[in-house]
Each structure stands twice: as structure tokens, then as C-alpha cells.
Amino acid sequence: MAGYERSELLKKTWAEMTHQDDLAADVTQFDRVTTGEIDGYTLDKRWIRKDGRVIDTIMSAKCLRRADGSVDYFVDWFRTSPSANVRRRRCERRKPSLLIWRV
After folding, report:
1. Residues of the chain with pLDDT under 50
2. Mean of the per-residue pLDDT values of the chain
């Protein structure tokens, strides 16, 4: 979907692949998770493909915590959407993708 080989993806961070206009909102929610305020979030998010094209998605991130409450890893689930303003129910039939990020 993003046009990268697996080896290339392993060298990238999610922030590097996030559209600049969506990064602040994503970081704000990510920080709320890492501080223990919430365990996950959903937002409209644009990703940047290797070829520079933009992919509109609806993304949900959920963390799994260690016994001490710290984040062990994130599971991100996303569906492509025809535009960032499309309601979630229009995307229910699309095949979801899954990413797992170790913190």
C-alpha cells in the first residue's frame, strides 16, 4: 500500500510517513496514550507513499501495556478512504491493514 519494501519500512518511523498536516494531531493522541491518559484513538490520517502520493485513511491505534502500565507495543489498524472527510461507515467494506509498532 505504501510502496516500500519491508526492509525499508523497518527503518522508517510512523511520523516520517505521516502527512505533515496530520502529524500534530497524531502526536497529541500518541502522547496521551504514552502518559496513560487513554489506551487508544481513532482519527482520519494521511500517509505519504514512497512515490510521494498521499493515502487517505481512517486509523485506529491501540496500545498493549506491560504489568507496570507502560506501553509494550501499539497495534494500528487502518482502512483507506476516498477522502479524509468520508464517514467511517462508508469504509466498512474495505479490507483493513494492520501495523504493529514496538515502543
Report:
1. 84-85, 87-89, 91-92
2. 82
pLDDT value of residue 33: 94
| Amino acid code (one letter) for 23 | L
Torsion angle defined by CA atoms of residues 41, 46, 47 and 53, in that order, rounded to the nearest 10 degrees? 170
Q: What are the sequence ranges of the domains in the chain?
A: 6-102
Helix (H, G, I), strand (E, B) or coil at 42: strand
97-102: strand order across its sheet: 40-48, 54-65, 71-80, 97-102
Phi, psi dihedrals of residue 82, rounded to the nearest 5°: -65, -25
pTM over 0.70: yes
3, 43, 76, 98 from 83: Cα distances, Å: 19, 13, 19, 20
Its CATH architecture, for the domain 6-102, is: 2-Layer Sandwich (3.30)
